[in-house]
């Protein structure tokens, strides 16, 4: 299934994309779930799949505003320096343990919305990543069990305000400016992507390819990341793990390449789809 969160006629809803059109799953399931996170928490994906049988979409994707796949995650764990090429271009060393920082929910936008360049900086950078959405809660999850805790996958643009990221050794300021990251376009449920399946991720800026890598190049794989962060704190349904970006970021090019108003940035993951956002300056 391809599951989305969206806004239509002033109301926030969740649904499924079937043959390019939207089925209002919230209505199909009798309004029993307030949002996609609640659906996951109730372990109701099988029920959702059953509700889609024989249904066709009522709305076009162009009729709605897509929201971040999970608009209200409890936690967004982001893995840094997780591809060797990116470690080398930042002049750092590979670490034995994964590096993590946290993002907040309102630092994100959905597919088709504008990523916002803040007034305080012109150094807005892209980072292609794969987002893992948790379905089954757990604490101290073993790597062999990690795949059973995944609800599905989405594309992610870990948009970064680089000068603020470099203010101190803590990256969080540059990673949490309002509406600087993209999350979408949909959640592809885990039953459609086998555990350890190799995925290819690509960034295009105004049609030019900037990043390309496969998940085989990760230093710390998805199962390892789930095991690590679930040791720190319980993972809950709707939590998100953003699994790292490959080399080719704008900050490490000569000269640097920064996203600017009017640009179009695309993050494509071959087994998921394309997350597309424009860039706009923040207004009052």
Helix segment tally: 7
For the record, what is the CATH homologous superfamily label of the largest domain?
A: Fumarylacetoacetase-like, C-terminal domain
- Strand element count: 19
User: Kindly, what is the distance between the CA atoms of the first and last residues, rounded to a whole number of angstroms?
Assistant: 39 Å
Indicate the overall shape.
globular
Counting copies of identical and different chains, the oligomeric state is: single chain
CATH architecture of the largest domain: Alpha-Beta Complex
Question: What is the strand content?
Answer: 25-35%
**Residue share in helix:** 10-25%
The structural domain count equals 2
* Rg of Cα set: 18 Å
- Sheet/helix structural class: alpha+beta
* Largest sheet, strands/sense/barrel: 12 strands, mixed
Residue-averaged pLDDT? 96
CATH topology of the largest domain: Fumarylacetoacetate hydrolase, domain 2
Query: Segments where pLDDT lies below 50 for 5+ residues?
Result: none
**Topology order in helix (H) and strand (E) letters:** EEEHHHEEEHEEEEEEEHHEEEHEEE
């Amino acid at each position: 299934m391809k599951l989305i969160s969206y806004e239509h006629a002033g109301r926030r809803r969740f649904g499924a994309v079937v043959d390019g059109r939207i089925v209002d799953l919230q209505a199909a399931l009798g309004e029993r779930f307030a949002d996609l996170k609640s659906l996951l928490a109730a372990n109701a994906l099988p029920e959702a799949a059953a509700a889609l049988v024989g249904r066709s979409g009522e709305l076009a994707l162009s009729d709605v505003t897509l929201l971040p796949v999970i608009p209200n995650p409890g936690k967004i764990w982001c893995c840094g320096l997780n591809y060797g090429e990116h470690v080398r271009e930042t002049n750092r060393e590979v670490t034995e343990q994964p590096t993590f920082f946290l993002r907040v929910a309102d630092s994100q936008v959905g597919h088709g919305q504008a990523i916002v360049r803040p007034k305080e900086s012109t150094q807005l950078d892209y980072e292609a990543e794969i987002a893992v959405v948790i379905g089954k809660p757990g604490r101290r999850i073993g790597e062999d069990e990690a795949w059973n805790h995944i609800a599905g996958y989405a594309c992610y643009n870990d948009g970064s305000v680089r000068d603020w990221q470099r203010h101190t050794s803590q990256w969080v300021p540059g990673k949490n400016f309002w509406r600087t990251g993209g999350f979408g376009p949909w959640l592809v449920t885990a039953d459609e992507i086998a555990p350890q399946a190799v995925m290819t991720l690509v960034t295009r800026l105004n049609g030019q390819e900037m990043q390309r890598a496969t998940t085989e190049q990760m230093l710390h794989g998805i199962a390892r990341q789930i095991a690590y962060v679930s040791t720190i704190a319980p993972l809950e349904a709707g939590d998100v793990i953003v699994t790292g970006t490959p080399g080719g970021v704008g900050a490490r090019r000569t000269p640097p390449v920064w996203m600017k108003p009017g640009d179009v940035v695309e993050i494509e993951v071959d087994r998921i789809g394309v997350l597309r956002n424009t860039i706009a300056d923040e207004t009052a």
